[in-house]
Design brief:
Blueprint (H helix, E strand, L loop, with lengths): L9 E12 L5 E11 L3 E6 L8 E6 L4 E13 L2 E14 L7
Antiparallel strand pairs: 1-2, 1-4, 2-3, 3-6, 4-5, 5-6
């Protein structure tokens, strides 16, 4: 039996920036390779472990959007970590788009 998802995933390729605070209050950030996105979340690959249930800030530099997400899973595969993020309150545009 397959797992039923709340919303459809779309394969993407690009870099997003992720910020979080560890248990001791230390601040971290890294660039992550985005793999897929849905209305409710994002899947990324990074080089550093992020604790499950952490609240992270996500910025997509190319599209100028940002938002918050909870870490739902963080699985090590080789030297990388595959991280599943669930959006909290949706993503929002950082700046207003300008049209020519």
């Amino acid at each position: 039996m397959g797992h039923q998802r709340a919303s459809e995933r779309v394969q993407i390729s690009g870099i997003v920036r992720i910020f979080w605070e560890d248990e001791r209050g230390g601040q971290h950030f890294c660039n992550a390779e985005a793999r897929d996105v849905s209305d409710t979340g994002l899947s990324v690959v990074i080089r550093e472990r992020v604790p499950v249930r952490s609240l992270v800030q996500v910025e997509c530099l190319a599209n100028q959007v940002q938002g918050s997400a909870n870490v739902r899973r963080c699985e090590q595969r080789g030297m990388n970590y595959h991280v599943g993020l669930e959006f909290v309150g949706g993503m929002r545009q950082k700046t207003k788009m300008r049209y020519a």
